[in-house]
Amino acid sequence: MQGSELEQMQSFHWMMDMLQSVDVGIVVLDKNFRVQVWNGFMESHSGLLPSEVRDKTLFSIFPNVEEKWFTKKCKPVFELNTRAFMTWEQRPYLFKFHNYRPITGNELYMYQNVTLAPLTSANGKTDFISVMVYDMTDIASGKKQLEALQVSTEERA
Description:
This protein is α+β, with helices and mostly antiparallel strands. It has 6 helices and 5 strands; from the N terminus they run αββααααβββα.
């Protein structure tokens, strides 16, 4: 193996390691919404191995994800090659994961922000999208507590 090939292999290995260990959920879906990539965050919070979800539709794995709504949300990502966003204020979660901090957290489920991003191939087509899931539970919980405190203060005034 040449020096540059070895460096490329090492760089690829590092990228895959980061993909698996980053504290963000990463899922890659094809145009039929079949799972192609399922990282460690998703495995940890769903309890499902990548081998259990690969090539299955997102809707068969998570029946509570509204297919019509999600398909509509993804349409501009595939067709216009643009990002789409979902915030926990609009919809508390895409994936119904339990809050993994039950002692310190007051929330039953993980609040999530989600980014849908096109993955463009060498021919310029977008045949895959990435779904990035960010845990926003601490922020959502804090905002809800602050709002409750404000209401309580206003009621006393």
